[in-house]
Amino acid sequence: MGWALALHGGAGDIPRSLPTERREPRLATLRRCLDLGAAALRAGRPALDVVELVVRELEDCPHFNAGRGSVLTADGTVEMEAAVMEGATLRCGAVSGLSTVVNPVSLARLVMEKTPHIYLAFHGAEAFAREQGVETKDPSHFITEDNIERLRQAKEANRVQIDYTQPMKGQSPQETKAPVDDNSQTGTVGCVAIDAAGNLATATSTGGLVNKMPGRIGDTPLVGAGTYANAICAVSATGRGEEIIRHTVARDVAALMEHCGLPLRDAAARVVAGTPRGTTGLVAVSGAGEVCMAHNTTGMFRACATEDGYAEVGIWTDEADGNGASVSVRL
Amino acid sequence: MGWALALHGGAGDIPRSLPTERREPRLATLRRCLDLGAAALRAGRPALDVVELVVRELEDCPHFNAGRGSVLTADGTVEMEAAVMEGATLRCGAVSGVSTVVNPVSLARLVMEKTPHIYLAFHGAETFAREQGVETKDPSHFITKDNIERLRQAKEANRVQIDYTQPMKGQSPQETKAPVDDNSQTGTVGCVAIDAAGNLATATSTGGLVNKMPGRIGDTPLVGAGTYANAICAVSATGKGEEIIRRTVARDVAALMEHCGLPLRDAAARVVAGTPRGTTGLVAVSGAGEVCMAHNTTGMFRACATEGGYAEVGIWTDEADGNGASVSIGL
Q1: What is the ipTM of this complex?
Q2: Are strands B119-121 and B92-98 parallel, antiparallel or unpaired?
Q3: Contact list, A241 vs chain B (CB under 8 Å)
Q4: Is A142 exposed, middle or buried, given 0-12, 13-18 or 19+ CB atoms closer than 10 A?
């Protein structure tokens, strides 16, 4: 059966008119991360190591809404969150409210490995980061001009904007029609993998929503919502955090497989179709080696690869199933 | 079928030798809350209002680990968290890291009703509390002598202590044997209800673990872990937060009912039995009017009542089913 991995850089109302200069840097990073992850899996690294290293790369890339490049709160600050989970053991770690930690996903793993807890947030998470000696930088390091501009636009429209992939005004010859109900999605990042030994793991990281209230926590660090892994499958979600939370998306994919015997593809499609259109995307791998990338948004930056040589990098999906979810899947 | 409600004041290694003076005030509060909740349901109040008002009473009582009477962090401070969820709509609200808010459960409801978000924490939650004008008090208001003593003992034993119901040294002629692995449980509070119109709701509130790391978040505010409601059932859990999180306890009860057609009792028993012994308790009501109070701990402070006239207030359960979980059932 062999190893497999899938990663995402955010689901949303990504227009097909997205200009090359806004598309290529992200696709290039997805390809680079896919290669890094595949190489690590080929070398026999455990799934947990692989999802962490891939997400670290995505956090470091300023074009995604995680780590550097995170979107800004209503106060113009960055509050990052992340989670990891190991399927075989149900061990997990999560952090929220980080403003100086270069790689939130690694701090989440340290919470899991070095404390009796699962989840640390805000001042307590920052204090733990210093105790652990992880790399930190001044908060200004994480703030990019693109995100300052996104916040300005969102405030102008008095909107909590959840699509950072929308072309910004003046940057695209064809301005997409601004949705009346702005429900397009954040560029959260995530990775799921099954390693050569058959172990599953997941990791997710994000800056949250543009113009979110300070202190707002989304789905990413909530085990069972944006991030979940057990012995059946590993899931990382992206989209409108509030919908992913109330629909316990990541846990529900596993539950449908466990209780209803659905293959990963069907479980993922059903869960995604059960959330409001335009709100949810996810990547997942199963213990049987299935790989699935599903979204009910216009698109989702994503990539996947398997040991037998299949690889995919993309944004949109042309095939939609009857449930209204687009699923690209590799068995 | 009619209304029904159930409430808890914490599951844990509550010894049968617990002296009257440590048992009676809590039982008296449970009875009072049961009467208040039942009266509200009889008067036709919606389930969401009822669970909130019951949990407010429990928060105000200093003998439970919520609101005033919350256990202390390693820094000697109080960091409270709470969540509410409405079954019919999947609307939910949660807060963490509040230190001045008299009724965290009400702030959680305000997050749900007054913001585009589900979950606010720490400084952002405190700011929101002030904007909303909810009742706040100096942090010292929430700190009780009992909890200062519990923290001192936990630090002395270098332990994150999760049982605040253990008799403290010197207060009981028969000292219970201190467990090598201190896995007894917090006195989190919670309430679930189904109203006359058949709507389900849940609310949970806690101060967390004795000697927890500052910033530590437990299961209570995590939708699907300690708190969950949909159209099938409403659940509020208590116990070792980390175990409840990784096993998505509250969501799993509903999932077993939905996907496997189990009655509430069996779903709850299976989920509780699936967590490590001594870590988990819950109260739940279903859309069919079933009421269940299950725990795999020595005891759980609890009470329930139904429109049909059944009422129960208790701590221990004598009946054990084959799964090793103790389940007490109200009609």
Answers
A1: 0.92
A2: parallel
A3: 118
A4: buried
